[in-house]
Design goal:
This protein has eight helices and 39 strands. With 566 residues, it is mainly beta. The longest helix has 16 residues. It starts with 12 loop residues before the first strand and ends with a strand. The relative contact order is 0.11.
Amino acid sequence: MWNLGTLPPKAQRPCFLVVLGLWLTFPVVAVPVPDMRLHFIDVGQGDATLIEFPCAAGLVDTGGERSPGSDSREALAIYLDRFFARRADLNGTLELLAITHPHRDHSEGIRTVLSKYRVKNVVTNGHPKGDQRYLIKQARQGGIPHRAIEFARLAEVKALAGPIIDPVDCRQGQEPIDIDPKIEVLWGQIGEDPGWGYATGWGGSVIIAGRASDGWLKVEQPLGQTCGSAPPPVGDFAGAESAPMASAVTADPALGADELRVLAPRPMCEASAALAAPWEDELILVADNEIDEQLYGFEPDDGRLAPKKTWAMPKGKRPRDIEALAQVGDSVLVVGSHSRNSRCEEKTKRQRLRLLASRSDGSLKEQQPAIDDEATWAKAREGQAECLATLFTVPPPPLAAATCRALLEAEKIAENGVSCPVLNIEGAFGSDEQRVWLGFRAPLVEGRAVVVRLTSELNELRFDQVALLDLETRGIRELAFHKDTVYGIAGPSEDANDPFALFSITLDGLAGGGLLRPEMLHRDLVTSSEGMAIQDGAAWITVDGDEGEPSCRKKSHQYRIELPNG
């Protein structure tokens, strides 16, 4: 029998989009009980499935909810503690920890699992995002065998196995545990409906299925399109019948996904910023955060952005990891992210801003010396008083102190190796008065995103206004200005495959500072939408391919959205 544990029904709630996942199938030889059990653990929002074998246990996903009434990490730990108390023979060991994809609602409990239990093998989809990045790092440092299964490396969708994926062997020469479960992994993105009634060509569904030699597990009622409810009733495993079925969570494609087109030319893999060119009508500038030598120019053509020209960046102190472009009169401010790299190592060349203009011959020139923030940022991190004195005007604007506390706390967390939510600038825009605003992807201040205004001289990293935006715990990924309105893209402050959102707020409202609630225009933008240029009442949005080195396996894409009252 499949053991579902104690799972009281929960209020219905929307699911996060499942963009890519793993199929995990566990074919086993039919033997007398005990054979195999699935425990669908109640972790609130998200999934955590414990697979119990006669001689071992594995865990697929770890849940992900932190709210006043529910903490998935605590719920997971309580359930696993009780399980291992009953199965004392397993000595608190998970033979396999599989994370289907790094959405928070599937990976929030990774740190809890690693801190409390022994994990002997790890399977992921290889994306160093969110807490899955931490898992991959810990596996590498701790010598835990890790298998990263990346769709881009598969010639076809097929079953994969091997000692890391299939580490369980319960053969001991005696009943009832003389079995060797065969564990296989399939990638969940396929080109057509496999027959379960869930179209997956747009991205994929996470499906967990069990198969015995004499039949298929029959799920009487699929989970459908809600999360956090009790799982469906399940028939007897040994006597299962009917066609292969499974429990699955699916969702509609993200907004604009059906209009996604590859953004050429190569090697544009990580389109991270976009801006309507101030010096040439109808032209859209795009930056690639892996390339600091040039900007790309695109021209709208039949519903897409067509490549037209490139500009070489002047030599000198070029910002690295370009994440934002802002118009300042007839010039463009190129903004480095100021963030650390994927290993949380500081890269000072990212701590730069540079103002560029177009020459009559079409080349770019530097308007003024680049703002190199290495020394500024080092001084600001020394303490609260130093942060306020270095980064803000005197007297400091309201919310400056809260912003400094968040910046300093993020540095402490990074230094302790827990995570890396340090300063990361990913949005910028210039107003008609040539005032430049910057938006932080991280850190958040009490769950709100930070937007700051640079002093009017544009010669140092110093701010004279602060606003905190309630973006539903998201950070800022892009900002753009059009007709007295600021438009922005919001996304997770740390890497995750969650949908992004489009919001708007008036410039007057932003300039007033304080705690603000922008209007949420769309909550279902394509994940990794990170560049936005506004032209003719529409937003051209570029999607970061996010895998630019060394082979551009995942190219940048583009799509277009009509703006309200554009």
